[in-house]
Amino acid sequence: MFTALQPQRQCSVCRQANEEYQVLANSWRYSSAFSNKLFFTVVDYDEGADVFQQLNMNSAPTFMHFPAKGKPKRADTFDLQRIGFASEQLAKWIADRTDVQIRVFRPPNYSGTIALALLVSLVGGLLYLRRNNLEFIYNKTGWAMAALCVVFAMTSGQMWNHIRGPPYAHKNPQNGQVSYIHGSSQAQFVAESHIILLLNAAITMGMVLLNEAATSKGDVGKRRIICLVGLGLVVFFFSFLLSIFRSKYHGYPYSFLIK
């Protein structure tokens, strides 16, 4: 692993990737199949800048496999941007390059169990306090909001993030420019999924306002304003969403307002 872990580098992705790399290395170290066929090493830029220069490497983190014989090929560089850096994905890549199977063992993490217990306790306490009046359970608006939250999370790619473990964003080491939208249709950044979530929410809000303007029986002037606001939200944010789709799927011919 070629990385830059020093605090002055401000590489949060490097720290996350290092954690996954250490999990994988320890899984191999304490495996019953452990042997000297495979070694895990780390090169930090501030301690081995000459190595980075010799390999013409200008970004971190980067994972490379060095075979016992011959020079590394293109497939010996892990496609971090497309696959992410989760230990399980790294283990699959290592198996493809070396035929060494590594079963990943993660240290126990009780944060999910604690969060679930707190959620159950909170819901149970709320139901207990409102035990004499449980009409809020039948509140359609509340259930609709909860359903929308789940839909936004799933359609924005949060599950993909959980499985692949992509970086939050990408900072170009040459000019310092930060990219929040991945340029490929095969990958995404965590920040990108947050942006898509907000865009979908804004479009949905516009549709809700349009429906409210069409079905309510209030003042005509107020309904007209609500209709215009809703239409503006749908048109602008859908144009923005379409422009992001167009930037990822190169050659897509259609655009609307924003290119």
TrEMBL record:
Subcellular location: Endoplasmic reticulum membrane
InterPro entries referenced in this protein's UniProt entry, alphabetically: OligosaccharylTrfase_OST3/OST6, Thioredoxin-like_sf
Involved pathway(s): Protein modification; protein glycosylation
Parts of the chain that traverse the membrane: 110-129, 141-160, 195-213, 225-245
Chief site of localization: endoplasmic reticulum
Membrane topology term: Multi-pass membrane protein
SUPFAM superfamilies: Thioredoxin-like (SSF52833)
Record keyword Acetylation present: no
Keywords for the protein's UniProt record, in alphabetical order: Disulfide bond, Endoplasmic reticulum, Magnesium, Membrane, Signal, Transmembrane, Transmembrane helix, Transport
GO biological process: magnesium ion transport; protein N-linked glycosylation via asparagine
Record GO cellular component, one term: oligosaccharyltransferase complex
Family designation: Belongs to the OST3/OST6 family.
Listed PANTHER family: DOLICHYL-DIPHOSPHOOLIGOSACCHARIDE--PROTEIN GLYCOSYLTRANSFERASE-RELATED, TUMOR SUPPRESSOR CANDIDATE 3
Name of this chain's protein: Tumor suppressor candidate 3
Lineage: Eukaryota, Metazoa, Chordata, Craniata, Vertebrata
